[in-house]
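Exercise 7 asks you to align residues with tokens for two separate proteins.
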Amino acid sequence: MSATADHAEERTNPAARLGFQPEQVVQEIGYDDDVDQELREAIEEVIGGELVDEDYDDVADVVLLWFREDDGDLTDALVDATTLIDEGSPVLLMTPKTGRDGYVEASDINEAAQTAGLSQTKSVSVGKDWICSRLVTPKAAAKKR
């Protein structure tokens, strides 16, 4: 595939835009009927396997956390997610977009991330109902500079 085709795929495939790589173990937390099935399928296509669920008992490469306003305490959910990955691995926090049921304020995400020891590196719109906040440990972010 040419470099141009790679860049075109990154723009059109949300899983590629989020940085998923072949053979990654992606642990999904917070799955419910409202999640974006197309995104899930795109991730599985890129990684070449199925997402693992909340019962997975090994270290994952990425945590995909679906979170809605009424799902409990976001800080606790993020702290729990960081125990499932190695330092430097991302937590991809999926929250409903503005105006959708379960919308989480950006300031709440930022505060919970900081309290959990994470930094937000970017936000990406994925699908019509969800936005992804990419969160990493600050130490890991500093190492990449």
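Second protein for Exercise 7:
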Amino acid sequence: MAAGVVDTVTTDLWRAVVDGVAVCLRRTEVPAPLSPARPTRVLVQIALAALPDTTDQDTGRQHTGEGDAAAPDTVRLAVAFMETHAADHIVLADLAAAAFVTPRALQYAFRRHLDTTPLTHLRRVRLDGAHRDLLAADPVTSTVSEIAARWGFGHIGRFAALYREMYRSAPRTTLRLPV
């Protein structure tokens, strides 16, 4: 079987086991050999046996067939949320909820797949948005403080330092550059 492909027999087996476990757990009296712990173990064993192994045996990193740069759904969901809500007040718990995982699981996924933290990535997304706005803004009617605040940076000095670190230029210089 090709990596990432689950055949119909395996799919049917999985559905049958899940349905059987659901029936057992709905009963008021569960027979001893089918206590809730046992079906859970059975489900895990079947899942491990049936579902494809998407890890690279040499590196131990997950791959999705799109190359090693492809991130899992957890990271993609969090990044999509960041990109659409970057100007909003976002905390780690918001990102984790958008990705349907715990904050710790999200931190682990970002570290593993992007070699950064979720909040550091969010800061980059916000800096990028501010950079685009600074380039497009009219220096007569716009200020660096206004644009920084729009992207969630409350402290102008901290914003300027982060901006200089990322773009090797002061934000006020970018605001005045011709478009």
